[in-house]
Every structure is written in C-alpha cells, then in structure tokens.
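Appendix B, record 7
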Amino acid sequence: MASFQYFTISFSLTLSLLLLLLLLPFLVTSQSNRNVSLGSSLTAAASNAHWVSPSGDFAFGFEQVAGTHDDGGYLLAVVLDKIPERTVVWSANRNNLAPRGSKVELTTGGRLVLTDPSGRQIWTPDTGERAASHGAMLDTGNFVLAAAAANVVSSMWGSFQDPTDTLLPTQALERDAQLIAKHSKSNYSESRFKFIMQGDGNLVMYTTHYPESQADEFAYWVTRNYIRESYSLALNQSGFLNLLASNGTVLDTVFNGGGSSQDFYHRVTFDYDGVLRYYEHPKRNDSSNVWPMKWDSLYFEPPNICTAVSGPLGSGVCGYNSYCELEDDNHRVCKCPPKYVFQDPSDESRGCVPDFDPEDCRHPQESNNAFVLAAMPKVNWSESNYDSFPAETEDACQQSCLNDCRCALVTYSRETCTMKRSPLSNGRVEDAMSGKSLIKLRISNSSTTSSPPEYFPVPKEEEKNGQTLFVVGLVLSACATFFILFTAATFMLLTRRKKMKKKDRESGVKDVVLQRQNDWLSRNLQSFSHCQLELATGGFTEVLGSGASGTVYRGVLPPDQQLVAVKRLDKAVSEAQDQEFKTEVKVIGGTNHKNLVKLIGFCNEGLHRLLVYEFMSNGSLAELLFGGGRNSRPSWYTRAEIASAVARGLFYLHEECSTQIIHCDIKPQNILLDESMTAKISDFGLAKLLKVGQTRTLTGIRGTKGYCAPEWFKNMPVTAKVDVYSFGILLLELVCCRSKLEMEAENEDEVVLADWAYECYQEGQVSRLVESDDDAMANIGKVEKFVKVAIWCIQDDPSLRPGMNKIIRMLEGSVQIPIPPDPASFMSTV
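Structure tokens (predicted):
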C-alpha cells in the first residue's frame, strides 16, 4: 500500500512538472514582454488606458495636463506609473496638446499615428519608409517600434532617440541632440532654454531669441573641458551622468550617482527655469510603506540661473522689465517691479510692461511732478545703460532721472549715477549688490484705479487748498532768495576764476577735469585723470605691493576720503597693447562677485594706464600665512573659508562670466583680505580672456614660477585648468601654512610641498603635514579631504583635474572624493 501511494505521488509530481515545462515558455513570454500589436489603439479620455512596461514602472498613453478643460489638453507621453506623483519623462505632442477623444494607433500598416477626433494627424515619428511589426513599452522607460525580418527583430525608432527634457538611466544624448525645457511646471510646451550636445563636443546651455528658436550668441553654461573629444552624454544604470568618448570611455562625470537603482528611480531633467537637475525618488519605503510625495534634487547646474544668464543683449532669464529671484529650493521665480504687470500671465518669459501711461517727454515739468522713484533693494538690471556720470548725492542722481523722460531706472553706487532706458534687461536679485536701484513710477494719470503705493504719499483732497497757498508763498520767498544767492555766487565765481588763472600761469600745471567714460569702457567705472590719481596717492609714494604687470600704491579719493589701491601699469604704447588694456578693463570692470576685488575706475591718458581698486585692509594671504611664524598662523576655520572663497571666485571667472576669464597667476600674493577677512582674487594683469565658444588658447608663459601648470612649459594649449593647478598648490599652502618651496626644511623630502604632501597621503600619514598645528589636528578629517582635492588639482594631465564647480562641492563635502592618482614629478614646475 505504501509503495502504491509513493507511486501515485511520484506520478502526480512528474505529470505536474511536465505540464509546467510545457507552459513555461508561454508564462515567461507573458511576463517579460508586453508587445503592442498592429491595430492596437488608445483614446484620450477621463479614465485612460495605457500600454504598460512588464515591471509596471513605466506607461505609454494619454496624460491630461493640469489646468486644462475636460475636452482638451492631453499629452501623449511616457510616465513613471508606480509613484503617486506621476511624472512625465517624454512626450510626443508637447507643443500641440490633443483634445479629448484623440486617438493613438499602431496601424495595420506599421505606423504609429496620433490623430484628433476628426482624424487630422497631430504627430507621427520619423521612421522613414520602414513599417513596424509591433511596439513595446520597455522597463527602461523607452517606448520603441520594432521591425521583424528573417526572424530578426530590430528597433527602428524609440523615444530615447527623440528626447524632450529628460534623460533616464541607459539613455544617451548624442552629438547635435538637445533637451528643451518646458515653459512652466504645468505647461509642457518648449521654452526659451536649450541644453545641447554640440557637434564640437561641448555641452552647453543657451537661451533663444523670443519668439524665434535660434540660440543666443552667448551660452550661459558650458563644460569647456573636452571639445572634439566628447561624443555623448549618458546616464548609466548606477545613476552617474557621464561625458563619454566615442569608444565609451568616461571623460568626466557631470553628476555623481545617488542611491541604488534597485531602490531609487533616477532622472536628469532640464527644468523649466533653465537648470539641469539630477533627481531621485525611492521605489519603496520598507519602514512605513508610505510613498514620499516629491522627488529629491541631488545636484544641479548652473548654481544660480539668475546670475548665469547675462550679456549685452537679450532679455535675460525672465524677460524684459522683470527680474529673477531664487526660491528656497533653488528654482527661479520671475517677478515684476511695482506697478508693472506680466505681458502674458501664462508665459512669464515674455517679461513685464508698465501698468501706467507712458511719460510725455514734451512736458518735462509736468512729467517730473507725475513720477517718483521707488527703491528696489538688491535688484540689479545689469544692462540697458545709456548714460553714467559722477553725482555727489543720491538726491542729485534721482533728480537727473526724473528730469529725463528716457530714464526708466537709475542706480546710485559710490557717487556714480547710472541711467537705464526701457526695456530693462537681465534683471536679477543679487545679495552682494552694491549701491541702490530706483525705478521710475507714475503717481498720476494711472491706467488703473488702484491706489498709489505707500512709498510715495499723495495729498488728501481737503488739504489741497491750504497747501496751494503755502506753495505760492514758498515760491515767492524762494525766488527772492535765489536772486540774492545768484548775485553773490556770480561775484564769487568771477573772483575765484581770476585767482585760478593766475595760479595756473604761475605753476604751469593744469588739472585734467574728470571725463565721462569712453564708449569702449564699462559704464559702471569712474574715469580718473593722471593728475587726480597722483594727488590721491601723494605722488605715488606709499607702495602696497608690486607684481609682473605693475606697482600698487595706497590712495585716498575725495570727497569721502575713500581708501583705494591704485595700480600703475607698465606704459603701453603700441596699438595692440592699448586695445588689450581696454578689453581687460571692460570685461573685468563688468564682473561682480564678492570674491573678486572690485575695480572702481581707471585712467587712460596719454601713456598712463592706471587701475583703481577697492582697498583691502588686511593685506594679502601671503602675509597672513608666511609673515608671522607658527604662533600667529590663522585658525583652521579661517583657512578653510579662504579656500572656499577663492574656489568660488575662480568658478565665477571660469563659468559664470559671459566671457571666460583665465586668471593665469593664482598665488597667495594675489589673494587679498578685506576688513572681515573675506578673501578676494586680485591682479588680473596677466589674465587671458577667451571669446565665446573658445575653450583654450596658445599663449606665452604667464604666471609665477611654482604655481604654473606643466602645460605652460610644453607649448600646449592652455585652458582654465591652469588656474585649477595653481589653486591646488595654493590649497596645500593653506593646509600646511607654509610655502610651496622651503629650502631650509629639516628633511630633504619636505622641501617641495607638493611632493611631500602626496608622499604623506600615499603613506596614510597626512597628520605629518600639520603635526605642530593643534587646530588642524583637531580637524584632521577635513585636512585629509583638502589634501585629496589638492592632489587632484595638481595632476600633470589637465583632463584629470576637476573643474572649479566640482572642487567647490568636494570642499563642501557634497561630493565623494575618489582616490587621486600619483600627480607625477613636480620638479619641472618649481
């Protein structure tokens, strides 16, 4: 009996196993592949059907756009389907939404077609003359059309080949391909922002000329690192966004990966505000099984879109007459000034227009009484200048704008009045802005019924009669007073003029009157005569320092006794040298960053070339590090702050200026400290300016021995990476509070700081570098991190050196620092 039962059970198991083996191919096929067969279709309706990927992560179908009516506003899209915040990662008809009842069909003829309810074609992919055998929504997020021939199935089109604004893992952006940002959070149509993998290998971000699609002349973000070498930009399955060569070699990592792809969804999206962001979203939450409600942004470029977009032409980030401000989540918001409104509320990129009648220039006195200036703290419109001149008081500057019907806004900074005409361009909030912006607003004859803003009072009706009598009496008194003062002033002026003429004849010296800025110079700078600067410096007697391009003197500018540093350059006589000086002043004078020494003005008179900078009361970093011995070394916190400040200043020069600036002479002597110990980069005498699109240059050796990158000595084209090398040496000097070269070192292996630092790091003994520094020893983890960053910076191969943006993230700890390789010998650069 037992044997019979055993036989029965064995037979049953065998039969079940055979049945399972017979059914297994069908089960596997149904689970791993959900092909869309010819003749299949979807219809845009309130409850949508989708073609779903095998895992259920992605779905292809219709998505109704938020804010649209029930009868319209559908995207044919690929969405992430397993998270509460259904996220569109690709769309077919972003510029032409489909109405309710529209249909997408994979026809029996092998074409994918989107049509409206009347049968009019809205969209179809470009597949040439080939016909698809089926479609499929893949687990990667790629919707594909495939063709079968001779038992071979090949993909003939996929959504990955025609991206909109998003890259998913395993997706690549190849040369001449682009991402175009959508207009807003809920408007998926193409905006003015483009992210392009150019044919020359550069990865760039542009704005376009509204309403055209042609890119502006100036890119507001560019990799600049691998021109001609970069072949594609790819997001791999580990979440790393890499620049790849044609053979697949990783040239650089733009964004590092986040969490594991098994636990997180990843995407890189070129957002509506013109910023490229890396996002991740958990796939599950084992602890509470509650889905998070939003994506986390781990990395983004550029750091500040409001200041990134700039240039002599164009409307900036937010359009004319508007200004850009960063929110807490680093997304930008566009705003209008008081009594201005958006030209198109549904499209903020078109800017703002005044909500009042235009000024009548034929009646200046009337217009002067009808307008007022309202202060807008920290709001700067960097362009639209049409005049700039000295003004002793802010009131005088304001009155000049009120009297000029062309003036829409005026800025007052350091006794300089700058007038700007409408439309105002490149507006943004700048925390470090010096001076004040005042916008002109109408207080009468407004086109709206709204009451005037509180910052300019209007007399009440019952007060007008009394005020009229008072004003008449005041005017009569003023006229009499004016006549008396005018007579006295005329007599004094004639007397003084006679004395001045006599004095000029006796001394033979004529003072050159302050001239208005030349057309070729930035209108934000003051123009000085040589005589003025000679008087301000006491005859160029008190020397603050000297460098390769000139000597710096201490000066005092009247009337406020402002301390300045006056740099007298070597005399330039050739036309080429004169043009170089003009170009340098124009570009550097247009920079505005808290970690760059501010250029106040210039002198360009005859053979005299002088630059006037803000005075830095705490001297140079060289004096701080090497001037006082071990007992007076700065704290570790101060040194770390200085390192970060220099890095941010260099990043601004390399990436955020409309014209890239390579400093070429980064060293402690050229890092100055203000009264609050804020570090600022100075001395641009050797700076090299690169034209838009230019990433490298051939030029003679510049800079200071010991800080020069190896390519200077190998007749190689130089890039911004030469500044990275110099920063690496400077960073080691900050860490160790000693010079790059100490011939009197006790041990021979400690003479060259770079060699010694790498040796200590390689042996796991970084503490030897700071063993006599208790403050640094207490922060040994950060010391090791800084040393690793420095070793990456001083690699012989420029392509191995990170860009300044990545260096900043490394120093701040937001990016993991890989183990650096041996930077090779440094003896050739000492």
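Remarks on this record: The chain has a mean pLDDT of 78. The chain has five domains: 31-162, 167-302, 323-449, 514-615, 622-829.
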